[in-house]
From TrEMBL:
Keyword tags: Membrane, Transmembrane, Transmembrane helix
InterPro entries: Uncharacterised_PGPGW_TM
Stated name of the protein: Tellurium resistance protein TerC
Pfam families xref list: PGPGW (PF09656)
Species whose genome carries this gene: Pseudoalteromonas ruthenica
């Protein structure tokens, strides 16, 4: 039962992420929340979550360097 509820919450987060991708809003946050909920039970989702975390971290570091040069 807990797994079903978490899967439904993850699906809801993904749907909200898609909506906010079209309409201005925090789409990345909802995608990451949905992926985190799925990563609790599915090892494949953990792989994608690690990839997203490292990619976002690298992007933030690059942005910090660009802004520091200003």
């Amino acid at each position: 039962m807990k797994k079903v509820i978490m899967n439904l919450a993850a699906a809801l987060c993904f749907v909200l992420g898609i909506v906010f991708a079209v309409v201005p809003g925090p789409s990345v946050i909802f995608f990451l929340i949905g992926l985190t909920l799925l990563a609790v039970h599915y090892p494949g989702a953990r792989k994608y979550l690690r990839y997203c975390q490292s990619t976002l971290s690298k992007g933030c570091q690059l942005l910090d360097r660009k802004l520091a040069k200003r």
